[in-house]
Every structure is written in C-alpha cells, then in structure tokens.
Amino acid sequence: MFFKKRQPVETYDKDTLTPVLKCSICNGEQVAGFRNKHTGEFKDIMLIRSAGDLQKFKEQYGITGELEKIY
After folding, report:
1. C-alpha dist (Å) from residue 40 to 10, 20, 23, 36, 58
2. What sign results for the dihedral spanned by CA atoms 21, 17, 66, 57?
3. What pLDDT does 2 receive?
4. Which residue of 4, 38, 39, 46 has the fewest C-beta atoms within 10 A of its own C-beta?
5. Alpha helix (H) residue ranges in the chain
6. What is the distance between the alpha carbons of residues 17 and 37, in angstroms, rounded to a whole number?
7. In the predicted structure, residue 3 carries a pLDDT above the cut 60
C-alpha cells in the first residue's frame, strides 16, 4: 500500500527505431516517440507536458541519456 507497483519496461526495436522528441516551433509542444532509422517515419507515443512526463517515458522504455529533438 505504501509502495508503487513497478511498471514493466516495454521494448522497442533498437536496430530500426530511435527515441526522439518531436517539438513544435510555434507553441513549444513536445511529443515523445520513435523515428524509424530507415524511412524517417515518426510514431508518437506520449505528449510531454513536464519533466516528469519525460522521465516516465524514459523509464517506461529503459532509455538513458538525452533524446534527440526533431522539428
């Protein structure tokens, strides 16, 4: 009751997908997702409203370090 359930780490294909932040130049909105290394296609996963949201995304997929920003 005092401890949070640990979320299982979800997986993604690290050979073909790169985690990125897609940022809007106009309003500063950020969306975390994955970009296909071969086609450049972006698949959005979650809207980032705060640093906590970004941390949650990284923990959910086991990502460390900074994410590349695309515009």
Report:
1. 22, 11, 15, 5, 21
2. positive
3. 59
4. 4
5. 51-61
6. 6
7. no
Answer for the pair 57, 12: CB distance below 8 angstroms, yes or no. no
Domain parsing of the chain, residue ranges: 17-70
Whole-prediction pTM: 0.82
Tokens of 60: 């959910």
The Cα 31–Cα 4 span in angstroms is 26
Which pLDDT tens digit goes with each residue over 15-70?
999 999 999 999 989 999 999 999 999 999 999 999 999 999 999 999 999 999 99
The Cα diameter of the chain in Å comes to 46
